[in-house]
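REVIEWER CHECKLIST
Item 1: Sequence provided? yes
Item 2: Single chain? yes
Item 3: Sequence as submitted:
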Amino acid sequence: MKQYASFVKKEFFHILRDKRTLFILLAMPVVQIIIFGFALSNEVKNARIVVFDQSGDQLTQRIAEAFNNSVYFDIEATVHSYQDIEKLFKKSNIKLAIVFPPNFQDDFGHFNTASVQLINDASDPNVATTLTNYATNIISDFQNNITNNRKLPYTIRIEQRMLYNPQLKAAYNFVPGVMAMVLMLVCTMMTAITIVKEKETGTMEILLVSPIQPFRIIIAKATPYLILSMVNIFSILLLSVFALEVPINGSLMLLLLESILFTLTCLAFGLLISSSTDSQQTAMFISLTGMFLPTLMLSGFMFPIENMPLPLRVISNLVPARWYYSIVKDVMIKGAGFSAIWKETAILAAMLLVLLGISIKKFKTRLA
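Item 4: Structure as written out by the authors:
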């Protein structure tokens, strides 16, 4: 029994000395509970919407107020034309537009019927359908409050218009997400084990004594994966257009350049992991938990970011795939230009410079 207790004590000391193992055992369950409990929900809240009120009467203002008081919608702006709606859909994260026709209150009072148009961003068909259901329920509840739930001949008709994806095809949503995940896997995970593999096989000594500068070594190791990533991008786009019938509405050259920028960012992150670890197993684990899972959960691909708690929304800003996913949707699905995605592009470029700088610095430290 004493021998058994001694071995148990020794094992506890071993775990306590290994900070990474201790983190996995204690911190990872907490992180997973928080993410799965708060982030993984298909419910949409605080969706940003705009109102185009051509009537401007008291009844339309009360309906707009009912939308704004709901936990599901936040009125971002009031517009004055359909052109303004289209611009906001492309430049901002607007999910829905509510359009009231002229003489809304007069039509409702004299003809017992009036129409409301709902214009959705259907590039994400699941979110568009959900928001349409929310809006329909709000208008229906407003109508019941006016009539005091009596069967009176007053009707507010709802007209729906789905932008960018009228048929509500799921492929319009998952193609940008698949592009982000594939590039993340090929770039981050594979490059994360390159330098570590050199250490484990003993060939790192050859690199250490070679006259090649550390920057050139890093670029040389990243180049093959950049080429493979571009092949993957072309294959995904070809399958999307010809097999899944998902059009490229924007500039193909802009989409390719943004994909190269995202690929370089992923390569820099993978090289940083590789230069900071000593085993391929550790590098692969960090790349999976550090990038693949956040890409899946916090990029907006599977679960809306708007309904996540504030801490998770802040953390999602550090996930490169979030910005790339938004870029692909805007360029490929909405046909937006660079003026609509310059912010996301600047964030990815900043991430690339920071990650690449840290990677080179750590590699130089190991050469010293």
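Item 5: Key structural point noted by reviewer: Residues 3 and 9 are 10 Å apart (CA to CA).
Item 6: Recommendation: ____
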